[in-house]
Design a protein that fits this description.
Blueprint lengths: L5 H22 L6 H14 L3 E5 L2 H11 L7 E4 L6 H8 L3 E4 L22 E5 L10 H10 L5 E3 L7 E2 L2 E2 L6 E5 L13 E5 L2 H10 L4 E3 L2 E2 L10 H11 L2 H19 L5 E3 L13 E5 L2 H10 L28 H9 E4 L7 H14 L4
Parallel strand pairs: 2-3, 2-4, 5-8
Antiparallel strand pairs: 1-9, 6-7, 8-9, 10-11, 12-13, 13-14
Helix pairs in contact: 1-7, 2-7, 3-4, 3-6, 8-11
Length: 366
């Protein structure tokens, strides 16, 4: 089976996606064509945000958001080390310093209780990550930020479609950034991303930054980047939006079924989902001992797995300069045990039972 089944998704949406792609090929507006603005309108309505700005990737969404906030060399941004490198990468590229705060042992999301102690006079923003498809404790994080006059950027690359206390991920803070990488809950057929905000000035800044800082053609009012999302990729996402509500519910149903089937499997610990939020399971991730042995045993049974993520950022060579010995021990422990199982909205019940049966047969490996 595939780790992520994009082929079944395309088969279900073939006519819609092909028609939308053909429309772009016919009108020929490959950059900033009408599908770009149509998608932004629909995504803003979906999240309840006042503004949506599509960009060329989730990574670029983080970069543009930080630039819009005026991040400068010497500033600090509080974030988590248990995430993909892009989260800290954009901070460092702007000359600022990532300040790593440890995660919760049962969700792998940033531990909000540890954030306030990490704030310094140089702190410029807080950037939590909604890992695996579940939002962090955004209300507590926002409250801390408000006390200190700081903006919050939700790295929602994995959580588009999820809700937190009745509100959509992406519209939970000053800025929300998501990714449309093909494997994400809502993906395109290449790179793409979006920024969400209710702040008019930040929206204007993001729109200008994504087109080389232009407020009008050849009028560069600020330093920017080439960060536009291609019209063709916007057309693909528009096609996928037609059944996205179904996919979100399917992901939640499959995640719940996995949880139930794995409840009595020795050696497997499930991710916790808080009662005031849900999860769209960008990855269905569990904790196992002796992960390499378990993965190799599953591979022999033709069950694909992945690890998100095997080395926390503060232990990566590129970011070790921002670490101190012994920091973020929970992130280190999680990185040693997490393992992701096949997950997609089109995962069949028989496949799920095949995965769990295989895991049951090898989970006792210690």
């Amino acid at each position: 089976m595939d780790f992520i089944d994009l082929k079944s998704q395309y088969a279900a949406l073939r006519e819609t996606i092909n028609t939308r792609i053909q429309a772009v090929l016919d009108h020929g507006q490959y950059i900033m064509g009408p599908e770009v603005f149509q998608l932004e309108e629909q995504l803003a309505a979906y999240t309840g945000s006042r503004h949506c700005i599509t960009v060329s990737s989730g990574t670029e969404a983080l970069l543009i958001s930080l630039m819009a906030l005026g991040l400068r060399p010497g500033d600090e941004v509080i974030t988590t080390p248990f995430t993909f490198a892009a989260t800290a990468e954009m901070i460092v590229l702007l000359g600022a310093t990532p300040v790593f705060v440890d995660v919760e042992a049962d969700t792998c999301n940033i531990d909000a209780r540890l954030i306030e102690a990490a704030i310094s006079p140089r702190t410029r923003a807080i950037m939590p990550v909604s890992l695996y498809g579940q939002a962090a404790d955004m209300d507590e994080i926002n409250a801390i930020a408000q006390r200190h006059g700081l903006p919050v950027i939700e790295d929602a690359a994995q959580s588009f479609g999820a809700t937190y206390r009745g509100r959509r991920s992406g519209n939970l803070s000053t800025l929300g950034c998501t990714s449309f990488f093909p494997s994400k809950p809502l993906g395109c057929y290449g790179d793409g991303g979006a920024i969400f905000t209710n702040d008019d000035a930040l929206a204007t800044a993001c729109k200008e930054i994504r087109v080389h800082g232009q407020s009008a053609r050849y009028t560069h009012t600020r330093v920017g980047v080439g960060g536009r999302m291609d019209t063709l990729q916007c057309a693909v996402v528009l096609g996928k939006l037609e059944r996205f509500d179904w996919e979100v519910e399917s992901r939640k149903r499959i995640g719940a079924a996995y949880n139930e089937l794995l409840a009595d499997v020795a050696g497997v610990r499930r991710l916790a989902i808080r009662s005031d939020r849900d999860c769209v399971w960008a990855q269905y991730t569990v904790f196992v001992e002796n992960r390499d042995l378990v993965r190799s045993s599953l591979a022999e049974l033709s069950i694909p797995t992945a690890v998100h993520y095997p080395i926390p950022l503060h232990r990566q060579p590129a970011y070790a300069v921002f670490a101190v010995p012994g920091m973020c021990p929970v992130s280190v422990e999680c990185a040693e045990k997490v393992m992701s199982l096949p997950m997609s909205a089109d995962l069949r019940e028989a496949q799920m039972h095949q995965v769990v049966g295989a895991l049951r047969s090898c989970a006792l490996i210690r």
